[in-house]
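Why should sequence recovery work at all? Because a backbone constrains its sequence more than one might expect. Tight turns favour small or flexible residues, buried strands favour hydrophobic ones, and helices have their own preferences. The token representation captures these environments compactly. In the example below, the structure is given first.
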């Protein structure tokens, strides 16, 4: 290939052809598209088109804004599914053309996305022969293998532990073992976007991925999965030279590497220039692992004013009882209507202070607490909740559920936010300070890595070539 490839890094056979063991992480709601994924495949790697609310185009090639006209949430949810299928099909077709027979094109779906199964089937139906594999995480996608079998595509579950893989394998995947192309190990502390931390793990205590990936490989071996089925290391990967002892290591079997954050800053990356510029300014600690996502999962995003305001909102929170009980001996007399809010004397003082500072409305949460917000905030929350188009299978923010009675049965949570609205907004040029900006925890390295100095923005091909050298 004309350049020096880092220590023993060899192509792997994937979907019947040789590709570099470098995977572009799929980033939903238009943060990856055909340009970035097609270019990654054309450079010999595995490009990933996100099938999470991807963009479609009109006859002039302009992006079609995803506007919802239906009056009911359920009908808006149907509109959302149509947009999702049309957009992803369009992105796959264009990416496949750009790749022109090199590398491979995967699609990525979030299992907790509203109508995930319908979207995935709709996309695979219309892109036969173009998609090599489907990566899927955020939840336990038991049905993934059966859908893959129906369309004869490979599948790559995203897990954060050997235990999660074992559960998927035992219940479903062992029946479709021949299409299991790889298992993506996504580091729950370092990856961008939604993170698979379980109750067994402490968000404040990151664990070394090596023993966890070795445990995953041991689980796979115990279930009879070949060492040739790669484990894809995702989350925190920057320089391959830092993973030298993972490459060609018989203890781990075949390893590939996923890059989610680095491809954001490329010429082909579809995110707006302001977002790209901001990535160069980040310092260690500027990406926050938080729990505000309406999915209920932990997720990682840049600690910008949008995220800080959610942190502050949750700080302005007090627990209450409906009757006088324990330390809840006084009635809340600010921010609420009615007398059924009993709080501690100290919390009453705090609440009066927040109201005096302009946070005049106390909104109930599903956890028997109230949070204090301004009139503008309250109006925004109410409008976004009313506009819900059902983008998740279960949404904590709006109480939507995509099946049965279409309600989670829990109170809508004002501490969260509409994720669809904010991700659409930031991807299409909205204010980078007032929207959710997903990123992996290594994003601070843009500032430190000499490759990006003097405002250099590589093409995807230049990035892949650089990664292959170990840098």
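From this structural description, the recovered sequence reads:
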């Amino acid at each position: 290939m004309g350049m020096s490839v880092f220590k023993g890094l060899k192509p792997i056979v994937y979907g019947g052809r040789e590709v570099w063991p470098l995977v572009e992480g799929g980033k939903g709601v238009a943060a990856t598209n055909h340009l970035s994924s097609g270019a990654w495949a054309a450079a010999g790697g595995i490009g990933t088109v996100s099938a999470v609310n991807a963009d479609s185009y009109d006859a002039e090639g302009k992006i079609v804004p995803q506007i919802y006209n239906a009056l009911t949430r359920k009908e808006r949810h149907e509109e959302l599914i149509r947009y999702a299928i049309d957009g992803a099909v369009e992105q796959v077709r264009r990416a496949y053309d750009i790749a022109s027979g090199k590398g491979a094109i995967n699609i990525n779906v979030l299992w907790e996305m509203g109508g995930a199964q319908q979207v995935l089937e709709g996309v695979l139906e219309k892109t036969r022969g173009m998609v090599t594999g489907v990566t899927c995480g955020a939840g336990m996608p038991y049905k993934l293998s059966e859908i893959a079998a129906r369309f004869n595509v490979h599948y790559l579950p995203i897990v954060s532990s050997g235990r999660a893989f074992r559960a998927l394998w035992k219940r479903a995947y062992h029946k479709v073992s021949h299409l299991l192309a790889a298992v993506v190990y996504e580091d729950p502390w370092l990856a961008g976007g939604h993170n698979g931390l379980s109750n067994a793990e402490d968000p404040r205590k990151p664990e070394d991925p090596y023993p966890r990936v070795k445990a995953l490989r041991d689980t796979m071996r115990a279930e009879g999965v070949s060492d040739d089925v790669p484990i894809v290391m995702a989350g925190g990967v920057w320089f391959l030279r830092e993973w030298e002892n993972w490459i060609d290591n018989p203890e781990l079997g075949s390893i590939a590497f996923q890059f989610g954050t680095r491809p954001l800053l490329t010429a082909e990356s579809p995110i707006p220039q302001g977002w790209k510029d901001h990535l160069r300014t980040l310092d260690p600690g500027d990406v926050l692992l938080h729990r505000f996502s309406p999915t209920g999962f932990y997720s990682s995003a840049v600690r910008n004013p949008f995220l800080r305001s959610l942190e502050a909102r949750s700080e302005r929170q007090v627990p209450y009882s409906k009757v006088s009980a324990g330390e809840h001996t006084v009635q809340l007399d600010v921010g609420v209507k009615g007398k059924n809010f009993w709080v501690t004397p100290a919390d009453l003082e705090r609440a009066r202070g927040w109201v005096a500072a302009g946070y005049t409305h106390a909104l109930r949460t599903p956890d028997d607490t109230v949070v204090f917000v301004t009139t503008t905030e309250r109006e925004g929350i109410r409008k976004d909740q009313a506009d819900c188009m059902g983008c998740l299978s279960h949404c904590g923010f709006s109480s939507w559920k995509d099946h049965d009675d279409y309600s989670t049965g829990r109170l809508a949570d004002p501490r969260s936010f509409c994720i669809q609205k904010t991700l659409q907004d930031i991807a299409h040029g909205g204010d980078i300070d007032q929207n959710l900006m997903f990123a992996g925890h290594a994003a601070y390295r843009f500032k430190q890595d000499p490759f990006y100095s003097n405002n250099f923005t590589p093409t995807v091909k230049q990035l892949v070539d650089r990664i292959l050298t170990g840098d």
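A few observations help interpret the result. The longest strand covers residues 104-110.
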